Amino acid sequence: MAALIASRLAKTIWDEFKVKPSSVTLWTDAQIVLHWLRTESINMKPFVGVRVAEIQGTWSPEHWRYVPTHLNPADDISRGIATADINGRWMHGPSFLKEDKDIWPTEPSQTVKVDTECKTVKYICVVQKKEPVVDAERFSSWQRLLRVTSYCFRFIHNIRRRSQDRLDGPLHSSEVEEARLYWIKEAQQYMDDWKTRLLDLNHFVTSDIIRVGGRLKKSQLPYESVHPILLPSDHHILKLIMRDFHAKSCHAGTERTLCDSRREFWILRGRQIAKNIVSKCTMCRKLRQPPHSTLMGDLPSDRLRPFEPPFSVTGVDLFGRFFLKYGKNQSKKAWGAIFTCATSRAVHLEIVDNLSTEAFLQALRRFFISSWMATHHHLRQRNVIYWSTKRAEGFGQ
Ligand SMILES: [Zn+2]
User: Fold this and answer.
1) Which of 86, 212, 322, 391 is the most buried (most CB within 10 A)?
2) Burial, 57: exposed, middle or buried (Cβ in 10 Å; 0-12, 13-18, 19+)?
3) What residue segments make up the domains of the chain, in order of their start?
4) What span, in angstroms and rounded, lies between the C-alpha atoms of 191 and 258?
5) DSSP labels, 13-73
6) pLDDT block averages, 10 residues each, the chain of length 397
7) Distance (Å, rounded) from C-alpha 267 to C-alpha 326?
8) How far is C-alpha 104 from the geometric centre of its chain's CA atoms?
9) Minimal CA–CA distance to 320: which of 347, 349, 340, 345?
10) Residue 244 C-alpha to ligand 1 middle, in angstroms?
11) Which residues lie across from 333 on neighbouring strands?
């Protein structure tokens, strides 16, 4: 308040002077006031801030100087002085004013440490997450994501350049590679603790990309295979990459998909991701779907005679051909006749020399001779029953 009154009084006197003084000096013995006058008023509490703003609007901080309390004549009234001393500095001012400015009292170098009138500053940090150029979650194909990202980068490139320097036409391989590296770096941002984890992979950083060190440095394999790119397991592009390798391997199994992916990438928990991709692949489900079983019809009555002798109802078919060896170096063609019991599924084999009727009838006779218990002989060849029971019995006799 004293500084404000002094400021207003000095302003009034200044306005009344027709001949303006060359300089104005305002004195105060309060260092805190000098500190306030050098501080922006907006940072102070309202009561002090409003008054400091008024003073600063009239007099700059350079007009203010410090006077020690024992040299301040304004304190003579508040503290009281002897009557004899009234005619002293109270009436004529302090004696140092008559001296040169260089020997005027100066402000101590001690600074104000605690200022209760300043506002408490509350720092608010706003963390803005850097959003990717496109939302990868909306894509189901790695190649499509790379193309769309490349076109976005091309658009950004073109709007910053003149028309003659702009890119057009089909995508260049360098543009697709730029998009690929962009997504790899984007995924690796999720690996905050990669320096302390996975130390056995001996990973390292080159061109801002984390790669696996491994033990294949002396190998003749390509650099991408020797030092595959390390990728986390919780980013959407990992699924896209694994799905892309799965499709390129013609929908191979889990191990083959994982092996192909490790030629370029070392994906954490890659086997589980590959297994998940293969299990959910629509094409694989179609290819590996087991055939549907058809509903079989009722068995014929001839096959349902459990209390009759074997070969009571018999079926016959030919199989072959194969070669029979006789002599030293001679062989001849032969076929097999298989007689099977319709009830017990017992079989009887005979050799047939050729495909003529006579050769088959001879085999049939041999079967009848060795199996006289047969009563009904359904002769079946190539799914056509052509031999009647009576005729078969006749041949058997
Ligand atoms: Zn598949």
Assistant:
1) 212
2) exposed
3) 2-103, 136-287, 305-396
4) 21
5) HHHH-SS--S---EEES-HHHHHHHTS-GGGB-HHHHHHHHHHHHHS-GGGEEE--GGG-T
6) 87 87 85 83 84 87 85 79 76 81 79 70 78 89 95 93 88 94 91 75 88 87 91 90 94 94 91 94 90 87 82 87 88 92 89 91 87 51 41 45
7) 65
8) 70
9) 349
10) 10
11) 323
Q: Are 273 and 267 in contact (CB under 8 A)?
A: yes
Tell me the C-alpha distance between 175 and 205, whole Å.
22
Residue 239 CA to ligand 1 center (angstroms) comes to: 13
Q: How far is the CA of 201 from the centre of ligand 1 (A)?
A: 30
**Residue 367 in tokens:** 């079967």
Instruction: Give the alpha-carbon dihedral of 249, 255, 260, 264, to 10 degrees.
Output: 150
Strand arrangement, sheet containing 204-206 = 204-206, 209-211, 229-231, 265-267
| Cα-to-centroid distance, 177 and ligand 1 (Å) | 26
Q: For residue 245, which of 263, 232, 229, 233 has the smallest C-alpha distance? A: 263
Q: What are phi and psi of 294, to 5 degrees?
A: -90, 155
The token pair at 311 is 């070969």
* Residue positions counted in the chain: 397
The string of DSSP letters for 194-216 reads TTTS-GGGT-EEETTEEE---S-
Confidence at residue 152, expressed as pLDDT on a 0 to 100 scale: 95
pLDDT attached to residue 371: 63
Tokens (6 digits) for 324 = 């029979």
Distance from Cα 92 to the centre of ligand 1, integer Å: 104
CA distance 286 to 225: 32
- The whole-model pTM stands at 0.49
Instruction: Note if the bond before 321 is cis, omega within 30 degrees.
Output: yes
Distance 262 CA to ligand 1 centre (A): 18
Q: For residue 296, how many other CB atoms are within 10 A of its CB? A: 6
Check if the beta carbon of residue 245 is closer than 8 Å to that of residue 211: no
Which of 57, 71, 88, 58 lies closest to 27 in space, CA to CA? 71
Report how far ligand 1's centroid is from the alpha carbon of 291 (Å). Answer: 18
